[in-house]
Amino acid sequence: MKLNLLVVGKTTSRELDTLIADYVGRLSHYCSFQLLVIPELKNTKSLTEAQQKQREGELILQTVPTTADMILLDEHGTEYRSLELAQWLQKRLSAGRDLWLVIGGPYGFSEAVYQRTCGKLSISRLTFSHQMIRLLVVEQLYRAFTILRGENYHHE
């Protein structure tokens, strides 16, 4: 079973890249984890928001295997506390299917991507940049694994 984080566009901040890489490294101690980046679309000024979502959606659907569970990071998704997220993750992982968490582009997801998803997850009701949310996701995944293993990272 693999855990994957798929994102649209690369991170432009060295500081964020460093922090993300740190948590990606930490996650490798708990599971087979991979962060994949779909390149940003070129010449988007001539595209409508719907066209941009459609093209990004096609790239997402080409990347995520149909045999895997795909969960979208979406503002309308289910929001969990860290302990609840750990339980949710354990349930997903015990199903034995590869799990893909997907962070879309600036305009969200196409209808085709929403139709293919197994669910939606929200990290917060607050709005974060698509670059910052990557860090929050990998940190929360790391936190969830430490909770599941009873390690002394999360304090409650």
Q: How do you describe this structure in short?
A:
The protein is built from five helices and five strands, in the order βαβαβαβαβα. With 156 residues, it is an alpha/beta fold. It has a single domain (2-148), classed as 3-Layer(aba) Sandwich (Alpha/beta knot), CATH 3.40.1280.10.
Give the arrangement of secondary structure elements.
Layout (H helix, E strand, L loop, with lengths): L1 E7 L5 H14 L4 E7 L10 H15 L5 E11 L2 H13 L4 E5 L7 H6 L2 E4 L7 H19 L8
Helix pairs in contact: 1-5, 3-5
Can you offer a commentary on this structure?
The chain has 156 residues and is α/β, with parallel strands linked by helices. The protein has a single domain (2-148), classed as SPOUT methyltransferase, trefoil knot domain (Alpha/beta knot), CATH 3.40.1280. Helix content is 43%, strand content 22%. The chain contains 5 helices and 5 strands, in the order βαβαβαβαβα. The chain has a 5-stranded parallel β-sheet. Strand 3 (69-79), helix 3 and strand 4 form a beta-alpha-beta unit. Helix 1 (14-27) packs parallel to helix 5 and helix 3 (82-94) crosses helix 5 (130-148). It is globular. The relative contact order is 0.23. The mean pLDDT is 94.
Portion of residues within helices: 40-55%
Q: What fold name stands as the CATH topology?
A: Alpha/beta knot
Q: By helix and strand content, what is the structural category?
A: alpha/beta
Rounded to the nearest angstrom, the distance between the terminal CA atoms is 29 Å
Could you give the order of the helices and strands? Answer: EHEHEHEHEH
Please write the CATH class name.
Alpha Beta
Q: Please identify which CATH superfamily we are dealing with.
A: SPOUT methyltransferase, trefoil knot domain
Shape: globular
Strand order of the largest sheet: 2-1-4-3-5
Total strands: the figure is 5
Largest sheet data: 5 strands, parallel
Poorly predicted sequence stretches spanning 5 or more consecutive residues = none
Radius of gyration: 15 Å
Provide the β-strand percentage band. Answer: 15-25%
* Annotated CATH architecture: 3-Layer(aba) Sandwich
